[in-house]
Design a protein that fits this description.
This protein is mostly helical and 128 residues long. It has one domain. It is built from 6 helices and 2 strands, in the order αααααββα. The chain has a two-stranded antiparallel sheet. The protein is elongated. The mean pLDDT is 87.
Length: 128
């Protein structure tokens, strides 16, 4: 993973230990667990009964996953990463909050991409 390779060049991360170095894997692993938890939303709480329900359940899962990941990733980020890091080539120190901001940006950008893709590929909306 490229993020782990870059992280291994940051002294503060290597000094913090293995937990900080594998932080990118935590993002993916926790995301998989959150999706597994929200899977029950689609299968037990809001099961798809007809074709028209598919889009609604998909949207609820997309928003639910993003909201849950937003809340879960903050304690993970501040718990496993050093408070301040110095990255070679970056003019200012990077904080755990900066990293959390990057995670949120990627998370919510992915959510927006999901909604945009759904809009342009769904039979519910024009232009399809």
């Amino acid at each position: 993973c490229a993020a782990m390779l870059i992280g291994s060049s940051v002294v503060e991360i290597t000094e913090t230990g293995w937990a900080a170095l594998v932080y990118p894997l935590y993002i993916s692993s926790i995301g998989a667990l959150v999706c597994l938890v929200l899977h029950f939303l689609a299968t037990d709480i809001m099961p798809v009964k007809k074709e028209a329900d598919i889009e609604t359940v998909l949207k609820v899962q997309l928003i639910g996953t993003s909201v849950l990941m937003t809340g879960v990733m903050y304690p993970v980020t501040v718990g496993f990463l050093p408070e301040v890091m110095t990255i070679q080539g970056v003019p200012r120190p990077v904080t755990a909050d900066n990293v959390y901001g990057c995670v949120l940006f990627g998370l919510w950008a992915g959510c927006a991409i999901g909604f945009i893709t759904e809009y342009f590929t769904s039979h519910t909306y024009r232009p399809v």
